[in-house]
Amino acid sequence: MNKLLILAVVAVAALFLALEISPHRTGPVCPGMVQVTEIHTIQGSGAVSPLVGKTVTVSAVVVGDFQGKERLNGFFLQEEDRDADSNPRTSEGIFVYDPGDQTDVEVGDLVCVTGTVTEYKGLTEIKASQVVVLGRAPLPQPAQVSLPLTEENALESVEGMRVVFPQRLTVTDVYTLGRYGEVTLSSGRLFAPTEVATPGAKAQAVMRLNALNRVILDDGSSTQDPDPILYPFPGLSAVNTLRDGDAIQRLQGVITYAYGSYMVEPTATPEFLFLNPRPSAPASVGGTLRVASFNVENYFDGDGCGGGFPTARGAVNLREFERQRDKLVKALVGLHADVIGLAEIENDGFGPTSAINNLVSGMNAAAPIGTSYDYIRLSVDRVGTDQITCAIVYRTQTVAPVGKAVFLTAGLPEMNRPPLAQTFVQKETGAKFTVVVNHFKSKSPRGAYGADADQGDGQGAWNHNRTEAAKALISWIATDPTGSNDPDVLIIGDLNSYTREDPITTLTSAGYTDLVSRFADGPTYTYVYKGAAGCLDHALASTSLVRQVTGAAVWHIDADEPPVLGYETAYKSADQVVSLYRNDPYRSSDHDPLVVGLDLK
Predict the structure, then answer these.
(1) Is the peptide bond preceding residue 310 cis, with omega within 30 degrees of 0?
(2) Which one, of 67, 154, 156, lies nearest residue 113 by Cα?
């Protein structure tokens, strides 16, 4: 009897060995009693499968169904809990690429898949040649994942698996929401390293932590320019937005990888929390006078007569231009400012067909009764050589220009737009102050070399150029270029530098006070780049003026909004051209405007 038992055990063991089926595997077996390879063996403990190019058969549970060419052309499989190994670095899940939809599957199906192991843009997958549904099985328990991750490739060990994020996650980037249906999430809001840390080692540490503290929520589709745009439910529109600073709780899905990033494909409807509602007006800054700064993102008006599109930048046709103009007018009038410094407006003079004349005409048409605007004119056709320039708009009821406007060219590093200075008098009090509007060189690395190349310290390219521009600005202002004989000076504009970077600290070391930082409760921002927020736009007051400042605030109408809600019509269906646009100030630009309150003496 004992001999018979031994023979039986040996026979069963031999059968398992022949099939390479683990003895603990139970339930239905694949047709034909083929060899079954466990998923963790296919995944291995590295980024690339050790079985690439091999034909394998797996038997596992469907944990994510994204079949169909309009989705992901496949589904995700995961080993049943009892079949998982004990190695935490090997994933128990895998994506099955099944473009022909050979067999319709559902979440919870136990299936047998035969196919070739491949690596597609960093994702280990099985290209299926046969899919057979064996029955139903309990879903494996989801892995608990939290941000920030402990290491750069921590999600590789759960690639293809069910996961749940038990924490509340912050929406930190919606830049690609319209193009690819993606939302970047993080634990808390991410800030540009040099917004919150000094350049160098401290900023690099923030950079590394930021990289560990993000994951992309995908929409379960590889379609570009989706229609509808899934998030937020029931779909993105001009009146149903999703903003950076909103949140999501208990996110559930499966982990995948594409184009250099780990993603979550949702298996349950994401629950968004709208914690960052659109502000209807700028925060109160007090005072009897308001000064604003606004980058208007390439405002070009064609030939000024309704034609001449496309231009070098901005709108590509008259329809887009009118949409751009309407949004910017709403924002500019909504600032309720007495003086507004503009950056990134077309450098085409000051005549009746100029961009600045067109914009101010629109402001006057939309302004409330008793309010009218004008703009500062210079005796030149162009200010500097760039396609874009700075400009100044003012409310005629409250302020008047004193003397002529002047701009700096001598001693200014190349590729910075010339600073524009104008002294104003407040009509009610007779007090004077000077506004200097700036637009420093961008961080784009194109053409940068030597000291202007990206030094890896968090400040990006052209930092040396911007710092020299700040020094030139300080020296120029010290000469009293407008002849005001008044020390009250307000530097405003897009300085293309975050708060802790050299150009800003150069200005503050010279005695100017960064007003947004002074009045903000913690770090703030006017721009979001790759999910990291920070202040590129600034207002800095001279020593005498800072005592007369009553407040400063950023009006967050643009940087938090999906770009697809802007004026552009490209990459949108006919319905979306209508549904994603509204004549309101939101996403009128890519920068947020800021406002300063003054009580001049």
Answers:
(1) yes
(2) 67
Structural domain containing residue 67: 2-136
What's the predicted TM-score (pTM) here? 0.93
Number of domains in the chain: 3
Model confidence pLDDT, tens digit, residues 378-415 = 989 999 999 999 999 999 999 999 999 999 988 899 88
Ranges assigned E (strand) in 287-398: 289-299, 339-346, 373-375, 388-395
Residue 68 in domain:
yes
Domain finish residue from 273, 298, 315: 273
367 vs 350: CA distance, rounded Å: 21
- Does residue 577 form part of some domain? yes
At residue 569's C-alpha, the angle toward residues 391 and 301, to 5°, is 30
Q: Are residues 129 and 75 in the same domain?
A: yes
Residue 460 lies in a domain: yes
Q: What is the pLDDT of residues 476-490, one digit of tens each?
A: 999 999 999 999 999
End-to-end CA gap in the chain? 109
* Residue 537: C-alpha distances to residues 106, 266, 326, 533 (Å): 51, 37, 23, 12
Residues 542 and 429 in one domain: yes
Residues 299 and 408 in one domain: yes
**Closest CA relative to residue 39, chosen from 115, 101, 108, 106:** 115
Do 107 and 203 fall within a single domain?
no
In what helix (H) or strand (E) does residue 595 lie, and over which residues does it extend?
Answer: strand 594-598
Rounded to the nearest angstrom, the gap between the alpha carbon of residue 494 and the centroid of all alpha carbons in its chain is: 18
Count of other CB atoms within 10 angstroms of residue 586: 22
Whether residue 279 lies inside any domain: the answer is: no
SS3 state at 252: strand
Gap between the Cα atoms of 572 and 538, Å rounded: 34
Sequence-ordered list of residues with C-beta below 8 angstroms from that of 258, at least 6 positions apart, any chain: 121, 122, 123
Beta pairing, strands 247-258 & 261-266: antiparallel
CATH code for the domain in which residue 496 is found: 3.60.10.10
Among residues 110, 109, 267, 242, which one has the least CA distance to residue 184? 242
